[in-house]
Specification:
Length: 500
């Protein structure tokens, strides 16, 4: 069970993959108390933003008591102005769960029925159709959350598997009656950073798995190029003290432990030092690891946060603030993007080293009969193209801001844009790593009958299970696609034990 405000990263990852969202007991009472407190304040006749006033620039416009329900209904309809492709099912699952957990903390003034409706959709895997684009990451992820919320009132669209349902059908499948929105409930559903946070978390989880895969690919490349494991000596990294670097070095040491290829050239090797792409892996991967760890901490706090406005305190105060401003999410997403870009950049340099006979000592382009065969020549070019794309995509989004709502909302985070590009970057990185894994496996084949470590041989077997040794030119793309699928399914990441 998940305690609202205390979810863990493994729980959030499991929710994306379809785990049930069962909340710990007690949330219903605090949520009802918040709704009751708001009702009492509303009876005083004072102006409460978004409850009996308009929104944004229209906040000074008072709404008549008999129009309060219509105010919330109109809010959902008018703000459902998203565009673009629909968000993928795992992300929508997480959005539903994050919104339910936030409202269940009892600071948003909504009835328990609102949370129940969100959880019912999730339990039946009836997922609102949410266009990916249209949020600037301030005042909440308004447009995408409006598309989600329309389904709760029997409007909009949702998916049940591959079936597209209208809102009424979706609620029927989830055995839920359409919500009749109470005061503030439309605003509470729309306010919040749940969309940008869920998208960023999806990017984080992908980046974490890809970093583990990159460590495996990097270790394979070191052995394929007959490189040294001395740069992974713990004494080097202890003297610098960077935690990610220490962890990455320990992982690389463990992956190479017991390699007969490494043992074969401990003496008499004319190379004093390897190129940076081999030697500086702990420094680069470790810095990326530290970035991802920091982003994970920020996003975990955000996933557990209440980012609504106004907030209703336990003692009945109604506080207007700005928790909906997603600057922390934007910064976290931007740093994840930097990590993804750099993981790919150094991987491509290892690929370039392996195909270069001067640097690697291996046959040119990793094929025995060069000239008649081009081997991995253009696979390296494809990896370079992916690196170039990721460099462009890594440009920070958080430094951008466009005023909205007639300058009432005059500084925004662009967090949703920052998070959205992570999926494309992760896909590009998976391509780069698939090329490196193919090249490294090919390089290891040239050292037969010598074998690498048990861990590296296991990874090589995964590659060879879908792509045979390259003994002459053939259709390259299917091999790349097959290894990429393994990368994206976490097959190589699962072989890597990254110390805490």
């Amino acid at each position: 069970m998940i305690e609202p405000g205390a979810a863990t990263l493994p729980q959030l990852r499991a929710l994306m993959q379809g785990a049930p969202a069962e909340l710990t007991p007690g949330w219903r009472a605090v949520t009802q108390a918040s709704a009751d407190a708001l009702a009492r304040r509303l009876r005083t006749g004072e102006a409460l933003y978004g409850v009996n006033t308009g929104f944004g620039k229209l906040a000074s416009t008072r709404i008549a008591p008999d129009q309060l329900a219509k105010l919330q209904l109109n809010l959902l309809r008018s703000h459902a102005a998203g565009t673009g492709a629909f968000l993928p099912a795992p992300v929508v699952r997480l959005i539903l769960a994050l919104k339910a957990m936030s409202l269940a903390r009892g600071a948003s003034g909504v009835r328990p029925a609102v949370v129940d409706s969100l959880l019912a959709l999730l339990a039946h895997d009836v997922l609102p159709a949410i266009p990916a684009k249209g949020s600037v990451g301030a005042s909440g992820d308004l447009a995408p959350l409006a598309h989600l919320s329309l389904v709760l009132i029997g409007e909009g669209e949702a998916f049940a598997g591959d079936q597209v349902l209208d809102g009424t059908q979706a609620l029927a499948m989830a055995n839920v009656a359409p919500l009749e929105l109470g005061p503030k409930e439309g605003l509470a559903l729309l306010n919040g950073t749940q969309v940008s946070t869920a998208i960023a978390l999806a990017g984080l989880f992908a980046a974490q798995d890809l970093l583990r895969t990159a460590l495996m690919a990097g270790a394979m490349s070191v052995d394929a190029a007959r490189g040294s494991d001395t740069p992974f000596d713990p004494r080097i990294h202890a003297l610098r003290g960077q935690p990610g670097q220490i962890r990455a070095a320990a992982t690389l040491r463990a992956l190479m432990e017991g390699s007969a290829i490494r043992d074969s050239h401990r003496e008499g090797d004319s190379r004093v030092q390897d190129p940076y792409c081999l030697r500086c892996q702990p420094q680069v991967a470790g810095a990326c690891l530290d970035l991802l760890d920091n982003a994970a901490a920020v996003l975990l706090r955000e996933a557990n946060a209440v980012t609504d406005n106004p907030l209703v305190t336990a003692d009945g105060d109604v506080l207007s603030g700005g928790n909906f401003h997603a600057e922390p999410v934007a910064f976290a997403a931007d740093t994840i993007a930097l990590a993804i870009a750099e993981i790919g950049a150094i991987s491509e340099r290892r690929i370039a080293l392996l195909v270069d006979p001067v640097l690697s000592g291996l046959p040119a382009f990793l094929v025995a009969e060069g000239g008649i065969n081009s081997g991995f020549m253009i696979a390296q070019v494809t990896a370079a193209a992916m690196v170039a794309e990721n460099r462009a995509l890594a440009t920070p989004r958080s430094v951008d801001s466009l005023p909205t709502s007639a300058n009432q909302e005059d500084h925004v985070s662009m967090a949703t844009n920052a998070a959205l590009r992570l999926a494309e970057m992760a896909d590009n990185l998976a391509t780069i790593l698939s090329v490196e894994l193919l090249c490294a496996a090919q390089g290891l084949d040239f050292h037969a009958p010598l074998r690498s470590s048990a861990a590296i041989e296991q990874a090589k077997s995964l590659v060879r299970g879908v792509a045979a040794t390259w003994d002459g030119d053939r259709f390259m793309a299917p091999d790349m696609a097959a290894v990429k699928r393994l990368v994206q399914h976490g097959a190589f990441a699962s072989l890597v034990d990254l110390p805490a």
